[in-house]
Input
Amino acid sequence: MSVWRTYAWWLGLALLAPIALPLAVRTRRNTLRLPPAAGLLCGLAGEDLPGKPLRLLLLGESTVVGVGVEELHAALVGQLAAALAVRCGRPVAWRACGENGIRAAQAHERLLPQVLDQPFDLALLVFGVNDTTRLTSLLRWETALGSMAQALTARGAQVAFSSVPPLQHFTALPWLLRRLLGMRAGLLDARLQQLAARLGAGHHRVELEFAPEYLARDGYHPSCLGYRVWAEGLAASLAPAVRCVP
Output
């Protein structure tokens, strides 16, 4: 079924290419570009709590470096660390390793080597938007994520994946691109779920209402509220799977 869905998507793209491609070029040229959040790429949440810190890594694309908000403590990594500290009753030492616009295969080459010298208890991989918009093949997508997950697992980390965001709700995109890219994101996420099941890793959905207040002013990245809701949803699903008691 997934093979036929993939073929159907490519057929639809081919038929709509005369409209979709100029629309994509115009959208890319006109979309507001926001910088990564300011602040150190590592920190400690819940420092007043007892116990040994849970070592958390977020590895991924622009949301990992907090595009859409001013400071990293208000971004996904800072808010997830704070939410996990509350749920687990112990400090959370976090590190963000990300790059705006990066795809999974590029992250395997450029980002992964930056974190393999540091031990982590939990590694959350956050990818999908750039691989969706750049039409990464499903095989290349799965191979890159699988290689990163296996490398981190071999160094003692429990690996989890955040689901591919539903691009059909990104208001910065015109309706046709939202439909096409939303379907493509679904194909990548289905492959990601299969990979997670094979590796015994968690697959955690982006639980976020894509209303205006949940989006940054670019209509593409989460706002502070959006990051908070996303982080709280992730913490609720991640906490049972991690060892909360040191």
About this structure: The chain is about 45% helix and 15% strand. The helical segments are 2-30, 76-88, 104-110, 112-115, 129-133, 138-154, 175-199, 224-238.
